[in-house]
């Protein structure tokens, strides 16, 4: 007994206090924590109308501009990337590269990395510098290998 209150009653009070804190935290705090610890906010989709050019640099160094149909397919594959994780992977990945140049001046460079892709975003002048991240998208990686002249 503490202060004349039995231990079983104290345990009930402690459980109630813990539950109030667990379920009573404001949603904003949880969102801030999620944004701090999550990398999902890095990957932003691109509308096909916002793209000025899509350039495929093949593994032999030759470059070509994709036609509209190929460009829409590449943008759809890029937009479908999941499981994003910020990484310090080098810019020296082997194989074909895809460069998406947006109308607002941003550049997105995509290169295959194992069965997934590494994406480098050019920085917005207002917000941040260049960012590199890994994304789970084996279909885009395979598309780059097929389009870039590699036979694996």
Protein architecture, described:
The protein has a seven-stranded antiparallel β-sheet, with helices on one face. The model has no long low-confidence stretch (mean pLDDT 78). The protein has helices at 7-24, 27-37, 68-79, 138-147; strands at 51-57, 63-65, 82-86, 97-102, 107-113, 116-121, 131-136. It has four helices and seven strands; from the N terminus they run ααββαβββββα. The longest helix has 18 residues, at 7-24. By secondary structure, it is α+β, with helices and mostly antiparallel strands. 34% of the residues lie in helices and 26% in strands.
Give the tags.
152 residues; alpha+beta; 7-stranded antiparallel beta sheet; 34% helix; 26% strand; elongated
Order of helices and strands: HHEEHEEEEEH
Distance between the termini: 73 Å
* Biggest sheet, spatial arrangement of strands: 2-1-4-5-6-7-3
Helix content: 25-40%
Unreliable stretches (pLDDT < 50, length at least 5) are: none
Summarize the structure.
By secondary structure, the chain is α+β, with helices and mostly antiparallel strands. It contains 4 helices and 7 strands, in the order ααββαβββββα.
Ordered list of secondary-structure elements with their pairings:
Blueprint: H1 7-24, H2 27-37, E1 51-57, E2 63-65, H3 68-79, E3 82-86, E4 97-102, E5 107-113, E6 116-121, E7 131-136, H4 138-147
